[in-house]
Each structure stands twice: as C-alpha cells, then as structure tokens.
Write a structure and sequence with these properties.
There is one protein chain. With 437 residues, the chain is an alpha+beta fold. The protein folds into three domains: 110 residues, no CATH class; 165 residues, no CATH class; 148 residues, Tick-borne Encephalitis virus Glycoprotein, domain 1. The strands form eight sheets. Strands 5, 6, 9, 10, 11, 25, 26, 27, 29 and 30 form a ten-stranded antiparallel β-sheet that branches. Strands 13, 14, 15, 16, 17, 18 and 19 form a seven-stranded antiparallel β-sheet that branches. Strands 12, 20, 21, 22, 23 and 24 form a six-stranded mixed β-sheet that branches. Strand 26 and strand 27 form a beta hairpin. It is rod-shaped, with a radius of gyration of 36 Å. The protein starts with a helix and ends with a helix.
C-alpha cells in the first residue's frame, strides 16, 4: 500500500537526518582536535520497486557517513620541535603499545602532537606512540633491507640518546715543519681524541728530521685521566716534501696532485689501551689522519719558519647530554647535544594508502586498514607520493564551524519535514479506518 510505504519513507528520512545530526555534532565537538577530518553525511535513495504509470511505492533514504582522512588541514606553527605535521598525502604510523610485539596492531593518524613520555618515547595526546626507523649517525636506515615491513619500525625513543659519545675516526692536521731543522731534531704537536666510551686521550705526533726534505713521524697515545702512555707508539713513518715546500708523499706513497693527503689508518688497539689503563673496556681506536693535500703548500708544509700547527681538529666527542631534536622535511630526526654536535637517530616514515576513504576510524583520531582500503605502504617523506613533514607545526581540524551550523539548520528543517510525513500518513490511515465506521 502506498500510504504504508510513505510512512516507512518518512521513518527512513527521520533516521537519515538523525545520522546527519550525529555527524554534524561530532564535527562541531572536534573542531579543535588536532588533525581531525570532518565527516560528511551523503544521502542515497532506496528503491523497493519500479514505479508504473499508475502506481508508486515509496522507498526511502539512507545517510552514509564519509570521511577523507587525507584532506589537508591548515598548518599552524608551534614552539615544540616534536610537534609534526604532514603537508600532503600520508599518515604517521603509531602503535598503542610502547614496545610493539608481533600481535600489536599499528594505526595511522594525522595528529602529530607528540611529546616524550616518562620513558622518553614520543606519544601523542591520544596515547599512540610514534614509530620510526632507527638510523646510523649518517642518517642511513639500520634495517634498510626490511624497511617495507612494519616490523622494521620501533617506537621513537629519545631516552637512549640522553648521553652520547662519538669515537674519533678522522683527524685533520696541518703543520709547518722548519726546513732548517738538523737531522735528529724533533717537534711535537698534540690533539685530543676520544674512544667508543668517550674517554679522552692526547694523541701526540712527533716529527723528526732524517734527511733533506724528509721527516719521520710517530704517533703516541696518552690517557688524560691517568696520564698513562700506551706501551707502544705507531711509526715511524716517512714524510717527504717537494723542493717548493709542499707535501710529496706519506709513508713512501706519493699522492696525485691536489689529492687529500690521507695517512694510513692509525689504530690503537683495545688490548693496548686496556694494558695501559686496566679495567677499561673499549673498541679499537682507529683514526684516519688528513695532512692537507699533496703538492699544495696550504696544508702540511716545510718552510724556513718556526714549527707551527695551523689546523688541529677531529670528529669525536666525549659524553654529552641531549638538548633538543630537529625533524627535517624528509622525516630525519636529528638529536642536538650540549657540545654542539648533531647526530641522526631516527627517520620517521609516512604511510600511504591506495583508498584512504575506506579506512576505519578508531578512537584517538586514528585509522586502521580494511579489506577495501588497500595495504599500508611505508615511504620516506617526499618520496613515492608521500607528503612533506613539517616540524614545530600541527595540522588543524578541517571543520568549518560556519558551514556546520548552516548544515545543522538545514538538518533540523529536514527532520521536521520528515516527521510531518509520519503524522500525515497516520491521518490518512485514520481516514481509512473511519470509512469502515
């Protein structure tokens, strides 16, 4: 009966507008939620049978909520370096568990308001932990061969870098050796170097005249804390100069013109260090020394002038506290230490999805994959269609309050009209009942 179908159409309309009212209410409630994406109720018809020339059976209407999790929100600057936003496609990868296991589910979110918790893990206000790839000091992903797998990720943990020491691996030394030194006369320069635990040593280099334009040089190492020298030095090695005072060869090997004058690796073994300083357990201390450039007088040289070092530096450091972090556009998280050194520690991936509108929302402004969304792909920011990361910024909610209140008025009117369908249908049925009377 058409009246009955009309009544059910009115009921469907009431239900659909109720759904729309709930959607609008949720949008308004989350208008200040970081990274929130507004939901839109889209209506579609329900047809129960095809109309004919003389009859029509009402179907109804259904409201289907639709959210685009990748809809770009306005980026707003903050004062926290661990606040992150994504400009473009993609999501942060998170986990509700501080140390995810094999059965712990990963979630996606655009809410990048992360702060370190009491254990140093970056966690957003919803309680999800930011996931990242651990890197070496050069920014290379440690487990790069398996980086496509979620199991390659770990919760970003700043506490394990609270104190970091960098062993010395290279040193740059430029000196002038007096060309008028007699055979047997020697000069010495010292440079501070560090082992794998941050212990500091004085590495002395002694230059001794052996012949015209030729010096022998020897390395020795002394522990600063105990003022103890290692039992054996390294050398002597030969250093030969050209007639114009520029460096010709090191250790009997002549380099190409303008090539870096790299000495063979200088290695003080862990055994030698332990023998000199009992109880100390460290790695071998291996250093490549650069004396400038071959055939150039601007590096290590031999002139008729006093012995004088012009450059003494190295790349190691003693223990230093973490002071701040920085995240660049590609998601590389770099730690900054009190001694002025920087060190790459994590790379934060951007997860992309083939059909983001098919993701399932979960509490905490996060999403999980579904059978229709496609699989999660881990990308480096700005690669593979992934967006750019912005440090010290957050993505605002995409809710437009003015638009939501306008929709609220329209929904209220539509709901009221739908109830009129029900009351009118009731009156029509009442008239049919009266015919019997």
């Amino acid at each position: 009966m058409s009246i009955n179908s009309g009544l059910f159409a009115g009921v469907a309309a009431v239900a659909a507008q109720s759904t729309n009212f709930a959607v609008i209410s949720d949008n308004i409630a989350n208008s200040n939620t970081v990274g929130y994406k507004e939901t839109e109720a889209r209506f579609r018809t329900l047809v129960t049978s095809s109309p004919s020339a003389t009859s029509f059976t009402a179907g109804g209407v259904v409201a289907q909520p639709l959210t685009d999790p990748q809809q770009q929100g306005l980026l707003q600057g903050t004062t926290s370096a661990t606040d992150i936003s994504i400009d473009g496609n993609g999501f942060f990868i998170t986990n509700a568990v501080q140390t995810p296991g094999a059965n712990d589910e990963f979630f996606m979110t655009r809410a990048g308001n992360f702060v370190p918790n009491e254990n140093g893990r970056l966690q957003n206000t919803a309680g999800y932990f930011l996931q990242g790839w651990l890197t070496d000091t050069s920014g290379n992903i440690v487990n790069n061969t398996t980086r496509d797998l979620l199991t390659s990720l770990e919760s970003v943990n700043l506490s394990q870098f609270g104190q970091v020491a960098n062993p010395t691996s290279t040193a740059n030394i430029n000196v002038n050796l007096n060309s008028n030194r007699t055979v047997g006369q020697a000069d010495t320069t010292n440079i501070t170097v560090f082992d794998s635990e941050g212990n500091d040593y004085l590495m002395a280099i002694q230059f001794s005249r052996t012949a015209a334009n030729t010096f022998n040089y020897t390395y020795t190492l002394t522990d600063v804390a105990s003022n103890t020298a290692l039992a054996a030095g390294i050398g002597p090695r030969a250093m030969v100069f050209n007639p114009d005072g520029s460096l010709e060869s090191l250790g009997g090997v002549a380099g190409a013109t303008n090539a870096a004058a790299l000495d063979a690796t200088v290695t003080f073994t862990a055994a030698a260090i332990t023998a000199a300083v009992p109880g100390r357990v460290v790695n071998d201390l291996s250093i490549v020394v650069n004396f400038g450039n071959f055939d150039q007088s601007t590096g290590t040289s031999q002139f008729d002038a006093a012995f004088a070092p012009s450059l003494l530096n190295q790349n190691g450091s003693g223990p230093s506290a973490l002071t701040s972090v920085n995240i660049d556009d590609s998601g590389l998280l770099t730690a900054q230490f009190a001694n002025g050194q920087n060190r790459a520690i994590y790379r934060i991936p951007v997860g992309t999805i083939p059909a983001p509108t098919q993701l399932q929302s979960v509490s905490g402004n996060a999403y999980r994959t579904t059978a229709t969304s496609g699989d999660l792909v881990l990308n480096i920011a700005q690669q593979g269609g992934a967006g750019r990361m912005q440090s010290s910024s957050l993505e605002n909610s995409t809710v437009d309050i003015a638009e939501e209140f306008t929709d609220l008025i329209i929904t209220q009117r539509a709901y009221s009209a739908a109830t009129k369908i029900i009351t009118t249908g009731d009156e029509l049925l009442e008239e049919i009942i009266r015919v019997k009377r």
